[in-house]
Amino acid sequence: MRALITVSVVLLLTACATAYQPQGLSGGFTETQLDKNVFRVSFKGNGYTNADRAEEMALLRSADLTLKHGFSHFVIIDGRSRADVGTYTTPIQSTTTGTTSVYGNTAYSRAKTTTTGGQSFLITTPSTTNTIMCFNGKPEINGLVYDAQFVFNSLAQKYGVVSDRK
């Protein structure tokens, strides 16, 4: 079991920043429909994802979801970002090598022990959650109204994302 946990952590540490993908082992997005035109969209990054990327991935998913459900615009009615901090300490391993020489009735030995590992790393995983309300056409309300197609095109180009919308 310990080996499985170690391998999992090493895989997470060697992965790239979280891609635009459904949530999995290395992070990603989730969404929950709260009403006909209201969704909660979350994006969780891994240790190689910075906070700006997590926020933009949540925004990208918000735009994609808006378009996927046949709407053209959305408003963020609640937005939250946070960063969880954890540590990972590499395993400690010691190796001893030695030589022995015999002269008559006397044995002489030399040994050398080398210890590696024990380094601790801070791992920060950012996440962003937006509750969005979607509209057909630009609503006449106070606040920032996003054009979903514009946001999607802009961020999809920046991150090399292709829509899976049919």
Write a short abstract of this structure:
The chain is an alpha+beta fold and 166 residues long. The protein contains three helices and seven strands; from the N terminus they run αββαβββββα.
List keywords for this structure.
single chain; 166 residues; alpha+beta; two-stranded antiparallel sheet; 26% helix
Structure description:
The chain has helices at 2-14, 51-68, 148-159; strands at 28-35, 38-44, 73-89, 93-103, 106-116, 120-135, 145-147. It has one domain (2-88, 120-159). By secondary structure, the chain is α+β, with helices and mostly antiparallel strands. The chain has 3 helices and 7 strands, in the order H-E-E-H-E-E-E-E-E-H. 26% of the residues lie in helices and 44% in strands. The model is unreliable at 9-14 (pLDDT under 50). Strand 1 and strand 2 form a beta hairpin.
Number of DSSP-assigned strands: 7
Q: Provide the spatial order of strands within the biggest beta sheet.
A: 1-2-6-3-7
Strand content is 35-45%
- Give me the number of helical elements: 3
Tell me the structural class.
alpha+beta
* Through-space gap between termini: 42 Å
Shape: rod-shaped
Oligomer: single chain
Q: Residue share in helices? A: 25-40%
Calculate Rg over CA atoms.
Answer: 26 Å
How many domains, as an integer? 1
Task: Report the order of strands and helices.
Answer: HEEHEEEEEH
Low-confidence stretches: 9-14
| Main beta sheet strand tally, sense and closure | 5 strands, antiparallel
Instruction: Round the mean pLDDT to the nearest integer and report it.
Output: 90
